[in-house]
Amino acid sequence: MASVTFESVTKRFDDVVAVDALDLAVDDGEFMVLLGPSGCGKTTALRMIAGLEDITDGKLLIGDQVVNDVDPARRDVSMVFQSYALYPHMTVQRNIESPLLVRRYHADGPDRPARKLTRSERDERVNEAARVLGLEGFLKRKPAALSGGQRQRVALARAFVGRPQAFLMDEPLSNLDAKLRAQTRLELVDLHRRVETTVVYVTHDQVEAMTMAQRIAILSAGRLQQVGTPQEVYGAPANLFVAQFIGTPPMNTLAGTVTTSDGSAAVEVGESRFPVPPDLKTPLEEGQPVIVGARPEHLDVSAGGSIAHQVRAVEWLGHECLVFGAVGPSPVVVRQVGMSPHEAGGTIRLAVDPANVHLFDPGTTERIT
Ligand code: ATP
């Protein structure tokens, strides 16, 4: 196991800056998810850890060692791809064993020379990997005779068998159907808990990030936007990008103006008023433009309130309703548990707890704290 540290790492492809001065420390044994939309640089960041891309600028460390110029084969990390990349003509056993046949390992201790493993050492490791991934019954089969989820487990076992310092995973669940994806998420979290290996996991799927990560690093256009626990990035997004990227439906964000006319500050959006978060350190000024944010589940329809929501459509999902509409000119979605009595065309009054209101600077898009 080892930590992985990016120190101001930049990767350029000609004039494209794929990763821009990334500072990120993945702790030893941590499950870190790199999350962001397509093209934000997350795969490039992962490939730099694996040594599959050169680093243009900055330093990358695995443990205490700077690995910028270390050959991929000597980095002691394993990568699991979306496509599994299994050998179709080999049995599951041989697929899992394959990295052990080509690589040398410090099997006699870290200070002794690396060497090829013996047959019985390989068998022992393959059996252990198969046991950990629940593949004991499938070792003699070929990949074609396995389900998608089983194939993915073979790819994981193959990554696991070399006992790497870190697992690197690039969208490993995206070829699975929704049910299997949900099940494999739980299995991966359980696997991580048992083996306690450092995992760097790339996805554009925020549900995967929220459910599996110990911490999430959110990237946009090559730049790190925020790193934090799922609770931190959901509860206190650092900027508008994170606020709108995490959460389904996303946070409602509305352009408003600060008013201090009643002695206490509020945000006016048309005729509606939003309270401001408690304990703001930044003073707000009369007439100051802000973006006010509230998550759909934090808008309370039951209490009446100072926010007028014109209802345009109601989606009933069984366990909850999504009430779509607008506050002033801005679209706003309200999540309500149970059956909604509201009908398209009406207006409902919403309240929101000040602690659940977020303010952002419209110029910088940063959160106002
Ligand atoms: P996706 O989820 O679509 O894989 P990503 O977040 O992983 O996206 P990257 O694949 O890291 O993004 O790409 C980041 C940027 O770098 C993109 O603009 C991409 O076009 C560019 N890029 C990636 N690889 C290369 C390459 N080999 N040559 C030129 N540009 C590249």
Task: Describe it.
This protein is an alpha+beta fold. It has eight helices and 19 strands. It has helices spanning 42-50, 92-102, 119-132, 148-160, 178-195, 206-212, 230-235, 240-245; strands at 4-13, 16-26, 31-35, 57-62, 65-66, 77-80, 166-170, 198-203, 215-220, 223-228, 252-259, 266-269, 272-275, 289-294, 307-316, 320-327, 330-337, 347-350, 358-360. A six-stranded mixed sheet has the order 6-7-8-3-9-10, with helices on both faces. Strands 13-12-11-14-19 form a five-stranded antiparallel sheet. Strand 11 (252-259) and strand 12 (266-269) form a beta hairpin. The longest helix is centred in the middle third of the chain and has 18 residues, at 178-195.
What is the fold's blueprint, element by element?
Elements: E1 4-13, E2 16-26, E3 31-35, H1 42-50, E4 57-62, E5 65-66, E6 77-80, H2 92-102, H3 119-132, H4 148-160, E7 166-170, H5 178-195, E8 198-203, H6 206-212, E9 215-220, E10 223-228, H7 230-235, H8 240-245, E11 252-259, E12 266-269, E13 272-275, E14 289-294, E15 307-316, E16 320-327, E17 330-337, E18 347-350, E19 358-360
Helix pairs in contact: 2-3, 2-4, 3-4
This protein binds adenosine-5'-triphosphate (ATP).
Given as residue ranges, the uncertain stretches (5+ residues, pLDDT < 50) are none
**Overall 3D shape:** elongated
Beta strand %: 25-35%
Total strand count, please? 19
Mean pLDDT: 91
The biggest beta sheet reads:
6 strands, mixed
Total number of helical segments?
8
Give the fraction of residues assigned to helices: 10-25%
**N- and C-termini, Cα separation:** 37 Å
Radius of gyration from the CA trace?
Answer: 25 Å
Class per helix and strand makeup: alpha+beta
Strand order of the largest sheet: 6-7-8-3-9-10
Heterogens: adenosine-5'-triphosphate
Could you spell the SSE succession in H and E letters?
EEEHEEEHHHEHEHEEHHEEEEEEEEE
